[in-house]
Amino acid sequence: MKLKEALNLSKEELKALQDELLAKAKESDLNAYVGFECAGEGVPILIKDNIQVKNWSVTSASKILQGYIAPYNATVIEKLINAGFAPTGRANMDEFAMGSTTESSFYGATKNPHDKTRVPGGSSGGSAAAVAGGLAIAALGSDTGGSIRQPAAYCGVVGFKPTYGKVSRYGLAAYASSLDQIGPITQDVEDAAILYDIIAGHDSKDSTSANVEHISIAKNLDANKKYTIAVIDNYIAEASEDVQKAYELAIKALEDAGHKILHKNLANTKYDIATYYIIATAEAATNLARFDGVRYGRRAEDVKNTHDLFFKTRSEGFGEEVKRRILLGNFVLSSGYYDAYYIKAQKVRHLIRDEFNKIFDEADLILSPIAPSVAPKLGSIEDPLEMYKSDMFTIAINLVGLPALSMPIMKNSEDLPVGLQLIAKAFNEQPIFNAALSLERALNYTN
Ligand code: GLN
């Protein structure tokens, strides 16, 4: 059942739907849910394990937060409840949203419903796998460098990363504060617009929240509007054959639907990964400094003094990938390296932004790959650098703060979904949804 259909159900029918989804999730072997709580009555929405829901466990899939219970609702949760929705279930994720496969979770990996030997993507892998696998009608995820869009693409569902500042981060466990955004993962474009409309808007509790009015996307959806869409030729050269095929298919469908395609190149893409992994780890190291065994979650036992308490709690509580990023982040922020790495990365971030804005002088939208390939096999990425490289198409969007929607385009010869993303100028989100709807109708993709 789609979200828009669930909106027409009676209270009793919604309760039955909630029970049915939770029962299915408990039986499922996907490991998409890591908690089965529900907050009231209404249209059930699955919530990633880094978003606070009052009185629910919230752990960011980390050992260090085991036992921590959220004392308040995130703003997005307040908004959902006020709109008649019911947060239902906890979605699995990579620990502290650091990862691209959902394998770094304390609760174990989530599986891709299209092929259980493959990853669902990450870090919002639980959210995407549940929506694709019929265990949730829609979900919330968070996207710091692709974590909504990439799992959506691997699982054949729709995921939207809003413009930075459009959705409140109040109550979202911070990974990299200048990059994080909460967004919807749904079965289709219209559902994404409906859910996004509910969670978007200014919030005085988040100092980076943009004070702009949110105009309903769902009410203004128009698949007949025509746009100029840029495709980045040097991007596509780096993608697999499957992704290139999806690109050709999408370009043809967009042209047939009356959109104009512009061919462009981006010169600074080779700096994206280094820039992102300097800024994201610097912010992560800072944000994660608060987990010391005193204030939140799990505390190490048998400690001799305060230093020992911090040391043991953090050594035991954080997983390998999180530790790697704390080390990297503290390194790039340390005196002597701060100018060479952190400040330089901030400068390159401006270059990347300027390049995108130049394209938006001529085009309304950009069509781009999400991942270089389809979902990889579970356990197949051992080298962290290889994993970081797979983020090459998504991270620039967060560095620049742009909105982007990931949608399924086709399935490859092994029946695995291939997705692409539509990107727009900051705060100009309606064209993304309009063009995505026209593409969705033209392609008729089914999961
Ligand atoms: N894969 C990227 C990272 O590990 C993005 C994760 C995310 O968007 N939360 O940082």
Provide the fold topology.
Blueprint: H1 3-6, H2 11-27, E1 33-38, E2 43-48, H3 75-82, E3 85-91, H4 125-132, E4 138-143, H5 149-155, E5 158-161, E6 181-186, H6 189-199, E7 228-232, H7 233-236, H8 241-256, E8 260-264, H9 272-287, H10 306-317, H11 320-333, H12 338-362, E9 365-369, H13 384-389, H14 395-400, E10 404-411, E11 417-424, H15 430-443
Parallel strand pairs: 2-3, 2-4, 7-8, 7-9
Antiparallel strand pairs: 1-3, 4-6, 5-6, 5-10, 9-11, 10-11
Bound molecules: glutamine (GLN).
The tally of strands reads 11
Low-confidence stretches: none
Output mean pLDDT.
97
CATH class of the domain at 3-225 and 370-443: Alpha Beta
Description:
The protein is α/β, with parallel strands linked by helices and 447 residues long. It has a domain at 3-225 and 370-443: Amidase signature (AS) enzymes (Alpha-Beta Complex). The chain is built from 15 helices and eleven strands. The protein has helices at 3-6, 11-27, 75-82, 125-132, 149-155, 189-199, 233-236, 241-256, 272-287, 306-317, 320-333, 338-362, 384-389, 395-400, 430-443, and strands spanning 33-38, 43-48, 85-91, 138-143, 158-161, 181-186, 228-232, 260-264, 365-369, 404-411, 417-424. The radius of gyration is 21 Å and the shape is globular. The mean pLDDT is 97. Glutamine binds at residues 97-100, 123, 143-147, 175, 280, 391. Glutamine (GLN) binds at residues 97-100, 123, 143-147, 175, 280, 391.
